[in-house]
Design brief:
Layout: E1 13-16, H1 22-33, E2 37-42, H2 46-57, E3 63-67, H3 76-87, E4 92-95, H4 110-135, E5 141-145, H5 158-178, E6 184-190, H6 196-205, H7 210-219, H8 229-239, E7 251-254, H9 263-268
Parallel strand pairs: 1-2, 1-4, 2-3, 4-5, 5-6, 6-7
Helix pairs in contact: 1-2, 1-8, 3-4, 4-5
Bound molecules: NADP nicotinamide-adenine-dinucleotide phosphate (NAP).
NADP nicotinamide-adenine-dinucleotide phosphate is lined by residues 18, 20-24, 42-45, 68-71, 96-99, 119, 145, 147, 190, 192-193, 195-198.
Length: 278
């Protein structure tokens, strides 16, 4: 009888924050399909989390959902203790969850400043510290999900952009510290991806029609389409694979080429969706 086919992440243990919806869910399902047992954290809906666990387990791996409010960094270590009790190790950690209130910087309340940074920065550091005892000696992979607001000014996104820029900087410092232990640390920076949060930003933050805005962006993107959750999940699946062991300290910009086009080309060239363009 032929041996059962192996999958690239067979037997690995992955933890993904904010795995109930959008990009986090897509990453969890993709890593499960590649053979990893997946722990996802969620904030609000245990029911939604249980549904994703069910989908994960359909891939023949174990799934576990744990509640975690990342706005409270002190809540992070006990979650990793639970993961340790359940699996004894972690091979992959994906810091995906983020949240903010989309307002101009001058209107940001101190509470939201603290909360935005607590979720994306303080809890990221707390998670790395908490995961290390479970990851040490395992050729671990750490991936942080960034955003184009980290380097492009976007209305209402200043605060989250500041937090994401900090995360990209932390990725480099962590890569330097953890490289000698065989652990890589990278980021993925998706362009505009169709999820609940991009809809919320475009409709409520910018007051625009979501479908029409996404279509207009696609027309200005060199590959002529919007990004999908699956695009991001595929990229993460590669970053955490054995084949990506020489990649560390990098944040991969995954936007179909949208942000590399010069503003002048936008005005002048049909290729860039400019005058006479698509
Ligand atoms: N969508 C895009 O176009 C885009 C582009 C660039 C970067 N990103 C980044 O990609 C990541 C995922 O975005 P998304 O669009 O998939 O977002 P989403 O659909 O809004 O999902 C966010 C996830 O994070 C969790 N979460 C939010 N606040 C939390 C908190 N305080 N504590 C714990 N968990 C919390 C949510 O849990 P609940 O379901 O319990 O609320 C949810 O699972 C974020 O880091 C975002 O900045 C997104």
């Amino acid at each position: 009888m032929a041996p059962a086919p192996t999958r690239p992440l067979d037997g690995r243990v992955a933890v993904i924050t904010g795995g109930t919806r959008g990009i986090g869910r897509g990453i969890a399902l993709r890593l499960a399909r590649d053979g990893a047992h997946c722990v996802l954290t969620y904030r609000r809906s245990a029911e939604l989390a249980a549904q994703v666990v069910e989908e994960i387990e359909r891939e023949g791996v174990k799934g576990l959902a744990l509640p975690l409010e990342l706005g409270q960094p002190s809540h992070v270590p006990p979650v990793f203790e639970r993961v340790g009790e359940a699996f004894g190790r972690v091979d992959i950690f994906v810091a995906n969850a983020a949240a903010t209130s989309f307002r101009p910087m001058l209107e940001q309340k101190a509470d939201n400043v603290r909360r935005t940074f607590a979720i994306s920065v303080d809890s990221f550091i707390a998670a790395i510290q908490a995961v290390m005892p479970l990851m040490r000696g395992r050729a671990g992979r750490i991936v942080a999900v960034s955003g184009i607001d980290s380097f492009q000014a976007m209305p209402g996104h200043g605060l989250l952009g500041g937090a994401k820029a900090a995360v990209e900087s932390l990725v480099r410092s962590l890569a330097l510290e953890l490289g000698p232990e065989g652990i890589t640390v990278n980021g993925v920076n998706p362009g505009m991806i169709s999820t609940d949060s991009s809809r919320l930003y475009i409709e409520r933050g910018l007051g625009r029609d979501y479908e029409a805005t996404m279509a207009a962006l696609a027309a200005r993107t060199p590959v002529r389409r919007s990004g999908t959750v699956e695009d991001v999940a595929d990229c993460v699946a590669w970053i955490v694979s054995d084949g990506a062991g020489f990649l560390t300290g990098q944040t991969i910009l995954l936007d179909g080429g949208l942000t590399m086009v010069s503003p002048l080309a936008r005005l002048a060239s049909p290729l860039a969706g400019g005058e006479g363009g698509a």
